[in-house]
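Sequence only, no structure available. Ideas?
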Amino acid sequence: MTHFEGSLLMSTQIYYFSGTGNSIFVAKELQKRIADSEIISIVSMLSNDSLNIKGDKIGFVFPVHALTIPIVVKEFIKKANFEADYFFAIATREGTVFRGFVEIDHLLHKKGKRLNSRVVISMFSNDARQKNYRKPTEAEVLSMEKKVEEELTIQTEIIEMKRDLSNMDISYTINCSSNPLANFLLEKLVIYGMDISKYVGGVNYYYTSDNCIGCGTCENVCLSQKIKLVDKKPIWQKDVLCFMCYACLNYCPVKAVQVKSIIGVVSYTEENTRYSHPFATINDIASQKSGKNK
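Reply:
I predicted one. Tokens follow.
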């Protein structure tokens, strides 16, 4: 059985994954601009035994995770059988280098397909581990969204006309190091770490501070269902894969969820603020598991 058997196929299907709302915002804005389109949660699709997906145009919208594509997006593309003749991808990022489109193209190539159009869009970071990290102001968010909407207007025309767009990404603003060779090596190391993380349950470096109120928000927004509330305290189950989306970190209403420092990476979450996209609610994030917007 195909996922869409017995239902009306939309001409353009936009598959999205989002931890704190940036990519949800992009997916929804893109849907508004493209006639006969729908947005579909990638997380909701993964539980299907088989994924036979048909459409005229198929797109992927997701955040950059550690310089590459999120684990969940990679697993979705590997699992799905696509029947379409045009594919596009949009990645949201803070400003880091991103070469993950090559990997998506490689995964599609194994299925006899190719990635026709690709673009990265700069948005605000949800990584509160960084030193001196701060939440953007309302004015900064509005200014950024104006730029995003302008970019999406351009991308809409490209997608509707089924044009190819494969320009090299040279607009990134954040380097791992000032040394080009060190940048290259660090980039490869980070991506390698992402590749092996799924075999060890992703990351297991979360904890809660004493001000946790046991509200269950972290469990609700956990897209991999790694978090389980035990005696009103969240437990990150080590045998469950973490999607590393930081939803639990950023949607906690009392800023109780923290990230431990690890070798080579100091975490400042205890002193920093949090960020989630102002147009993305807790329900927007949590409903990705069921695929039904609340």
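The mean pLDDT is 86.
Hope that gets you unstuck.
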